[in-house]
Amino acid sequence: MIHKSKLIEVLTGKNRGLLASKNHQKEILAAIAQLEDYNPNPHPLEAKELLNGNWRLIYTTSQDLLRIDNFPLLKLGEIYQCIRVQDTAIYNIAEVSSLPFLEGIVSVVAQFEPVSEKRVNIKFNRSLLGLQRLIGYQSPNRLISEIESGKKFTPIDFNIQNREQKGWLDTTYLDENLRIGRGNKRNVFVLIKV
């Protein structure tokens, strides 16, 4: 599909949005909008087999995510959003690199509730923050399995009690290996299936 290849082309070299100038952002958002017009799955929540799985972020406008790269000595690594449709669960996992042996993980666990053919409400339930070596991090799948088994992690693992920690996400494009979402803070997310 020509629109999909155009989007991938304009995203190349932008480091998930960290290196996108204002002009690049306009070009990227225009390419995203064009692709959304040709969504092969206009009812993405019905395409559970496509939605389910592990997705790696390749572009976002979310400053909450991109700001992680601004902390001294920290470098934002891969960011994953892992969707478990059968459990209505979303696992957001950001890998962070630093000095040798100080690589970290920032993860948020959420539940989602479908409210329309493309929108889910999201309630954030749990947050994890720690060094990859201390928590034994190897991959998103293994971390999710350990979370689901009830394992507690150190140094920071807490339940989110604040009722304000919620939002919504529209899936505006979905195919077998690309997903685009738009969130309640007017952020755009482009992810590829891994």
General description of the model:
- This protein has 194 residues and is an alpha+beta fold.
- Helix content is 24%, strand content 39%.
- The protein is built from six helices and nine strands.
- It has helices at residues 2-11, 22-36, 48-51, 63-66, 132-135, 140-148; strands at 53-60, 75-84, 89-97, 104-114, 119-131, 156-159, 166-174, 178-183, 188-193.
- The chain has an eight-stranded antiparallel β-barrel with strand order 1-2-3-4-5-7-8-9.
- Helix 1 packs antiparallel against helix 2 (22-36).
- The protein is globular and about 45 Å long.
- The two termini are 20 Å apart.
- 29% of the residues are buried.
Instruction: Kindly report the spatial arrangement of strands forming the biggest sheet.
Output: 1-2-3-4-5-7-8-9
Helix count equals 6
Q: Largest sheet at a glance?
A: 8 strands, antiparallel, barrel
Give the termini distance in whole angstroms. Answer: 20 Å
Output the helix-strand order. HHHEHEEEEHHEEEE
Number of separate structural domains: 1
Task: Please report the total strand number as a whole number.
Answer: 9
Instruction: Using the 3D structure, state the CATH architecture.
Output: Beta Barrel
* CATH-defined topology: Lipocalin
Helix content: 10-25%
- Structural category is alpha+beta
